[in-house]
Amino acid sequence: MKRLLICLTLLTTILAAGIFSAAYVRNTNARIQDLCAEIREQVISDTDPSSAITELCTCWQEHCKILSFLENFNSVTAISAEMSRLPALASADPADLIEQIDSISEQCRLLSQRHLPSLHSLL
Amino acid sequence: MLIVFIRSIILYFVITAAIRLMGKRQIGDLQPSELVITMLLSNIATLTVEDISIPMIMGIVPVFTLVSIDVIVSYLSLRSRRIRRTVSGSSKLIISNGKIDQKAMRELRFTTDDLMAALRAQQIFDLADVQFAVAETTGTISVCPKKTAAPPTAKDLGLAPADTDPPVMLISDGEVSTAALNFLGLDMEWLNKVVKADGASIPEIFIMTAENPTKYTIIKKEPRK
């Protein structure tokens, strides 16, 4: 009976942690997607996107720390590498920046999709 | 994490179903669910240890999920015969009253060679000596020989020997087991006296077993060459 209770507690804890982590990944991804859209709009409207880029990088750095416990190391470092190119691109080529932002946005979306229960991620 | 959790649960049931589908002859001495856990845990552990890009939590979550699910399924099996039969299957009679149930053999995909090998493992070499044979849920075969082929028991011979406990290991490689001494209601004083009477000391004893204070066996260590 004691063993059963331990197992039920473990399962509940894992389930709760799983739901929390999925909710966290979903919310942070939504925030990243919003920032990417904002940067894209600012580049198109010829406004300085530096503050949004800084915010995106800070957001990713925080997210990256938690994601390293949940996600394959290679997937996280790949996006981190792409993120690190953003500040330089902001002052260089707007076309490249848009391309880079779209790529980051797509990679983050795919990464978060792996944490959200759906038919695709389960099967 | 949630995905790994759900996938572990799905895989547990899918593989258990697959093992059940394979039948009794595939599973050796384990219950189907035990085999599934053993297989999955070893693979998860290997992957997590080998691939350092996988976070440790992704190895820990499925391990605890699978073990917890197994404990819960075992508990439910204990409470419900129906669940027990679904998870582990049921034993099947393959020889009844000395007659082989060929349909049951076909269902279990047991060949005559498998049957004969299982009988030989139980020291039965003639099919005519078997009264009943049962294929257990673990895939092993239990055999009940005919009374004419079974060795006579004390009851058959009209004897009534007293029931005795098996001998207990008191000294193993020079180390005394106080638990064994307590079990027999003996003490160190008795042990020292007995060992001394045998012309040895406790560290010189390789094995000492005893059933009671008067019936014991002492084997001394051989001198090292």
Automatic annotation (TrEMBL), chain A:
Protein name: DUF4363 domain-containing protein
Alphabetized UniProt keyword annotations: Signal
Signal peptide start-end: 1-22
Superkingdom in the source lineage: Bacteria
Keyword Signal: yes
UniProtKB/TrEMBL annotation, chain B:
UniProt membrane topology term: Multi-pass membrane protein
InterPro entries assigned to the protein according to its UniProt record, in alphabetical order: DUF421, UPF0702_alpha/beta_dom_sf
Keyword Protein biosynthesis: no
Pfam families found in the cross-reference section: DUF421 (PF04239)
Signal peptide: none
GO cellular component terms given for this protein: plasma membrane
Alphabetical list of Gene3D superfamilies matching this protein: bsu07140 like domains
Family label: Belongs to the UPF0702 family.
Protein name: Uncharacterized membrane protein YcaP, DUF421 family
Native source species: Ruminococcus albus
